[in-house]
Amino acid sequence: MVSPMTSAASSPLLNAFDDQDKIFSAAFSILQRAIAHHDFPAASAAVTHRGRLIALKALGHFTYDQTFKDSSEKAGAPSFSRLWREGGDFGVQSPNAVPLLASSAGSENPQVYPSTLFDLASLTKVVATTPTAMILYERGMLDLDAPVAAVVPEFVTDEKKDPRRHDVTLRHLLTHSSGLPAYEKLFLKARTRDELLRAAFTTPLTADPATRAVYSDIGFIILGIALERLADEPLDRYCHREVFAPLAMTNTTFNPPAECRPKIPPTADERESKEDRDDAGAFTRELFEPSQPSSVNSRSTFRKKIIQGEVQDENAFVLGGVAPQAGLFSTAQDLAKYAHALLSGGCAVFRPETIALFTRREAVPPVTSRALGWDTPSTPSQSGKYFSPQSYGHLGYTGTSLWIDPSRQLSVTLLTNRTWPDCSNHAIRIVRPMFHDAVLEALEAEG
Questions:
Q1: What is the pTM assigned to this prediction?
Q2: Among 27, 95, 104, 226, which is 20 to 30 Å from 322 by CA?
Q3: What residues contact residue 275 under an 8 Å CB cut-off, 6+ apart?
Q4: Cα-flanking dihedrals φ and ψ of residue 71, to 5°?
Q5: H-helix or E-strand containing 377?
Q6: For residue range 5-63, what is the model confidence (pLDDT) as tens digits?
Q7: Is the Cβ–Cβ distance between 298 and 286 less than 8 Å?
Q8: CB atoms within 10 A of CB 79
């Protein structure tokens, strides 16, 4: 392995993955077995270490079926929930959509490639929303301890009902300690972006601010609006100009163009079947990959079609596909570039001290693993057992993750579409830490 980088404020990420199949054979085998066991249809992974991209691997196909055409003709596709075995105008396109690398769509069930885009789901929070907050903070435009109501006065419309709302700060939203609930199916009662935002702004608190950490999509929706108002610009435009373009993340975008969508693995089959009609409204969106599957129907029929190339998250869909909690699409290689920028001092996009501030675990509320936007390893952790206490990362509902260890100058990106055809399969929770452990064991063996 190469020696650690000394000063990498503007060092490019060097490709060095010619020997990846030999070095990471055990790690890749874990992903191959997971695909064979229908834990997820496809995976794309990237590993950076000491300034080099040392692994970039794509495995699997868009779906489990022999042909994607056959899959799309099966109403009520089966739920692959096997346990891991050892051995507005919703179609609007982003005005800043960037050219995307082509993936193969020549077969009816296409193979995935390193250039294949995946729905990042909640990785949007740390690849788009959190870096926006970091830049605004650096420029003196964001006061972390300012009350949310100072930027989003709609948040205290019902102040007489709950005066605690005045105490909620932007820091609380970033650290998921605002007292807002984890998740609400706002899309069931809001058919436009404005209606959904009003519902988010008036969602009741379920706890006192700063007393507990509860991972909250609602909080990030409100945070995103606050950031857009501070920046005086939509989130997608700001991110493209300030983050994605400077870091050459040319395959990262909200709302992929229509011509690219057939080249993106599907994330859900939302077509209605007789069983769905008999059990209308029973489906539950599992919050942030819970440890136990729900006992009710986990297949959404909200859009009554296969979800491919558009955001899987229903609330983000109603928000027009550009949302602070979900909606970003990218490749493993682009996320490796982003991780490299954070590991190497910011690459002229972020200041090192800002990176340190936002990725350090918060002291309040007690017993939290949250940093500003990011998460840190807990026990047990989806990062596995080897990432250092200084590490930070995040997960995405569609089966995506990004973990970064500054003490090792290491990052591991894993993208899957584990939500195909529905959300009942939680084997990713077992596969992911096994994959991380295998990666770090391979690096240790290399010396």
A1: 0.87
A2: 104
A3: 76, 297
A4: -60, -45
A5: none
A6: 333 345 789 999 999 999 999 999 999 999 999 999 999 999 999 999 999 999 999 99
A7: yes
A8: 16
